[in-house]
Amino acid sequence: MSDWVSFSEIKNRVTLEQVLRSYQIDWLRRSGLHQYRGRCPIHQGQGTEAFHANLERGVFHCFACGAGGNVLDFVSAMEGCSLREAALRLQEAHGDRSVRTPWVQSGGTEGRKLVTKKREGNPPLGLQLDLDRRHPYLVGRGIDATVADYFGVGYFGGRGLMSHRIAIPIHDPGGRLVAYCGRALDGAEPRYRFAGGFHKSQVLFNYHRARAAGQDQVIVVEGFFDCMRVHQAGFPNVVGLMGARLSAAQKDLIADQFSSVMLMLDGDQTGSAATTEIAAELRPACRVSQVLLPPDMQPDRMSADQIRDALRRPDERRQTIGAN
Ligand SMILES: [Zn+2]
Fold first, then answer.
1. How many A from CA of 186 to the centre of ligand 1?
2. Is residue 118 pLDDT above 80, yes or no?
3. Is the separation of the CB atoms in 7 and 31 below 8 Å?
4. Ligand 1 centre from 43 Cα, in Å?
5. In this predicted structure, what is the pLDDT of residue 127?
6. Whole-number Å distance between alpha carbons of 281 and 246
């Protein structure tokens, strides 16, 4: 990152709308020609009218917490960083003037909600969150430092939707960052938080990397941590459904790239029912094997050895997963 930054140039180049989209703030409602209002992403209070943004003037103000200003003030408030750091972040994210991310050009603003897309796509995010990849939660979940770096996951200490959560970057099939999922550290609900405008059904977690692994087979698991643990056990060709269902788009993504599929969903009722269903859906397109885990077992709770053993001998019903 270059240390030189012009505040005025950044303010001219990066719009408040772009920045709001970068933070996946999709709940603001139009309240005037260029005016939007809604819950404040900075102090995150309950008031649904507190935060006002004027997209033409590129300014915002919150009547509850008093935060206000331009794009730099906004990033600074969200990240808890200085204006200069905010400018450097924006310069890095929007460095090349010739590159315009698709969501910049979404004209036709009459009566629409900010950010909400009509089409079922996931526009790229402009900004990467600054994450702590060595957070104790990741260690507790058995994620090695190299794997945290590889997946780019970490704790987000700033403000906004991902505040005080483990933020997990999600990419589109082309490898562009399109969303974060925020995993709660404690019992906070929801356990996994997505931005409202994100279409989970359009992507598979880790698909672009699994594809790059260049293998015929893909391993399909349910969750983010399942995926990371299977990768860590030595299988880079793994994708996560982000749930226990396979959408039509996800099915196409798999069939387009892989001739063979290994399903390793959770051992619970939901997971085993989904395994049967998904296997039937994929069979016309691919060769399908499955690992049937015991009811209390899921990949993110298995050791690397257990994962390797299970994948080596699929298609047999397991009663227990032993360490031996
Ligand atoms: Zn506020």
1. 24
2. no
3. no
4. 4
5. 77
6. 9
Distance (Å) from CA 14 to ligand 1 centroid: 22
- Token pair, residue 76, equals 């600074």
CB 62 within 8 A of CB 42: yes
**CA-wise closest residue to 239 among 217, 256, 271, 259:** 217
Radius of gyration of the chain (CA): 21
For range 183-209, the mean pLDDT: 91
- Ligand 1 mean position, distance from CA 189 (Å): 21
- 262, pLDDT greater than 50: yes
Distance 142 CA to ligand 1 centre (A): 36
CA distances to 92, 209, 225, 282, 303 from 231, in Å: 30, 10, 10, 22, 12
Ligand 1 mean position, distance from CA 122 (Å): 27
Q: Are 115 and 21 in contact (CB under 8 A)?
A: yes
| Sign, CA torsion 95/97/98/101 | positive
How far apart (Å, rounded) are the C-alpha atoms in residues 286 and 262?
A: 10
Q: What integer best gives the mean pLDDT of the chain?
A: 87
Q: How far is the CA of 90 from the centre of ligand 1 (A)?
A: 21
Percent helix, percent strand, percent coil in the chain, to nearest 5: 30, 15, 50
> CA-CA distance, 67 to 47, in Å (whole number)?
14
Structure tokens at 298: 């899921």
Q: How far is the CA of 77 from the centre of ligand 1 (A)?
A: 10
Residue 28 CA to ligand 1 center (angstroms) comes to: 13
Which pair of tokens denotes residue 102? 């698709």
pTM, full prediction: 0.74
Confidence at residue 311, expressed as pLDDT on a 0 to 100 scale:
96
CA of 66 to the centre of ligand 1 (A): 6
| Distance from Cα 73 to the centre of ligand 1, integer Å | 13
